[in-house]
Design goal:
Blueprint (H helix, E strand, L loop, with lengths): L1 E7 L6 H4 L8 H8 L2 E7 L2 E2 L1 H10 L19 H7 L3 E6 L18 E4 L26 H11 L9 H16 L5 E7 L10 H4 L22 H31 L6 E6 L5 E2 L5 E2 L7 H4 L3 E4 L8 E8 L2 H9 L21 E5 L4 E4 L3 E5 L10 E4 L3 E2 L2 E2 L2 H4 L3 E3 L10 E5 L7 H6 L2 E4 L24 H16 L4 H6 L11
Parallel strand pairs: 1-6, 1-7, 2-11, 3-12, 4-5, 4-6
Antiparallel strand pairs: 2-10, 7-10, 8-9, 12-13, 13-14, 14-20, 15-19, 16-17, 18-19
């Protein structure tokens, strides 16, 4: 038995529709769909990048306990569990956050791993002098953007791109090991994450790009300029075409080596991105609309042979590691919340950013609960590994530490607690407020349903909101959410106690 997980960062669930429904632009994803079960109601959970990968390892939500960070000592890791049960595990990735302070401890869970350098703001190549780069509006990370333009000098052709080099390594592993048994391969591409840098042989398949515009950064697009915004969308679509080319290389090897008979394939993404929908771009600073949290999941399981079908059962990122462990007949850890997707629909899916919205869906309704108070408190970070994104925790925050008793989510191990760290900017929660949508009647989430507001003297909310609020509380309790999260969101539990 063998398994291949392909994870492409920021890959939207509606990729084909984004390309005008033109299957000729993405023929290999059509090939993959024809050979897989297409789970049409799959959701991200803990966003963005590294929180999602912690879910991929542990099968547990983590965004209510801490923000971006490494695997913790109490975490069970899916690839490490496979390794401990005699299955060889290999990672190839250009996701450079694995080598940041806040991404450590993930790649070393595999039997072996290979990294590809140079995507986005990876501090890869050293160049001290000036770097030629276009004017970028409202720069949010000038040093990071500079690093990207340094890196680009060393990737002049498509074969030099991080996407192509990552799949080169994945294909090398398959070529060397296709006749062996008991292995798991994770091919993980940071593409199509921004910047939406692409190459002429693929870009020419879409309308001509504007000259001299830095439209590939998405969130830095000049809003209000329709031509430039559409140029950004075409840059993203081009990356989907490039991803399709690489998927074709994998499918060709599945055919060449007749791997379909004994090799599971799983294709998914950590999250999507906004490309102007709702008047918003990218992620992190907007509500978690469908374009961000409704992600693709395609699964070929040679045990049942289902292919070319759609399955509308509700499932989540936390179900992916459970699905892979189940395939190899490895027992799931006791506190893993995820379940194999072949077992059917779950009751509800949680998703959100640490310190921001906490959301849920039952497959029809989506409920995004905003903080109850302007200060977005109380909020604490729970950890043993004191790193975040590019940094170690600030020393002044570590001076405020307290050791708190262990919980089910920490296997009873006491952990450290300090004031909330690395939260997403909370301002957009107050700009939008609590949101409720009916996806059956309003799939594009353009008409929010009425919700109770704190200053509403009637104190009433709809039956739908009451039901979704009850589901949110239940899912948060199952995820062992800290007590103060209920208070932060103004959620009153059945006991009558708030938080």
């Amino acid at each position: 038995m063998k398994a291949i997980l392909v994870l492409m960062d920021t890959f939207r669930y509606d990729a084909l529709e984004l390309c005008g429904g033109n299957a000729d632009l993405l023929p290999n994803f059509k090939r993959l769909k024809d050979h897989c079960v297409n789970y049409t109601c799959h959701y991200a959970g803990s966003l963005p990048c590294m929180p999602a990968r912690r879910e991929l390892h542990t099968g547990r939500y983590n965004f209510m306990h801490r923000g971006w960070g490494p695997l913790e000592p109490q975490d069970d890791s899916m690839p490490e569990l496979l390794k401990g049960n005699g299955i060889y595990t290999h990672l190839v990735s250009d996701h450079y956050h694995y080598w940041d302070d806040g991404g450590a401890t993930y790649h070393t869970r595999y039997s072996s791993w290979e990294c590809v350098r140079g995507h986005e703001s990876d501090p890869w190549k050293g160049l001290v002098g000036p770097v030629e780069m276009p004017e970028i509006h409202a720069p949010w990370n000038p040093e990071g953007i500079r690093k990207n333009y340094v890196n680009r000098k060393y990737m002049p052709e498509y074969k030099d791109s991080t996407l192509a080099r990552t799949f080169d390594l994945g294909m090398d592993f398959i070529d060397a090991n296709h006749s062996e048994d008991s292995w798991f391969l994770q091919i993980e591409s940071f593409t199509p994450h921004e910047p939406f840098v692409n190459y002429p042989q693929y870009r020419r398949l879409l309308p001509d790009p504007l000259v001299g515009q830095a439209s590939e950064w998405g969130t830095l697009t000049s809003k209000g300029d329709p031509l430039r915004e559409e140029d950004t969308r075409n840059d993203y679509r081009t990356l989907l075409v490039e991803c399709d080319h690489e998927m074709g290389r994998l499918l060709d090897r599945m055919d060449r080596y007749d791997l379909w008979k004994d090799t599971m394939i799983v294709f998914t993404s950590d999250h999507g991105t906004l490309l102007g929908e709702h008047g918003e771009w990218n992620k992190n600073r907007q509500p978690l609309f469908q374009e961000v949290v409704h992600t693709p999941l395609l699964v070929w399981d040679p045990r049942d042979g289902r292919k070319g079908v759609e399955d509308a059962s509700l499932n989540r990122m936390i179900d992916v590691p459970a699905t892979i462990l189940d395939y190899f007949n490895v027992s799931l850890p006791e506190n893993m919340l995820g379940q194999p997707v072949r077992k059917g629909s779950c009751e509800g899916a949680l998703f959100g950013y640490y310190g921001s919205y906490v959301c849920c869906t039952d497959g029809r309704y989506v409920y995004m609960r905003s903080a109850a108070n302007p200060d977005n408190k109380p909020l604490y970070t729970y950890f043993l590994m004191p790193t975040e994104l590019f940094h170690r925790f600030p020393a002044e925050k570590l001076q405020q530490l307290e050791l708190v008793p262990g919980r089910p989510s920490t296997k009873g191990i006491p952990v450290l607690r300090t004031e909330g760290l690395l939260t997403m900017p909370p301002d957009f929660m107050y700009r939008y407020g609590t949101l409720l949508y009916d996806l059956f009647e309003d799939p594009k989430e353009e008409r929010p349903l009425p919700v109770w507001k704190k200053d509403d003297v009637s104190g009433s909310c709809t039956i739908i909101e009451k039901r979704m609020e009850a589901l949110l509380i239940k899912l948060m309790e199952e995820a062992d959410a800290p007590e103060e999260q209920f208070e932060r969101l103004g959620l009153v539990r059945e006991t009558g106690e708030q938080g």
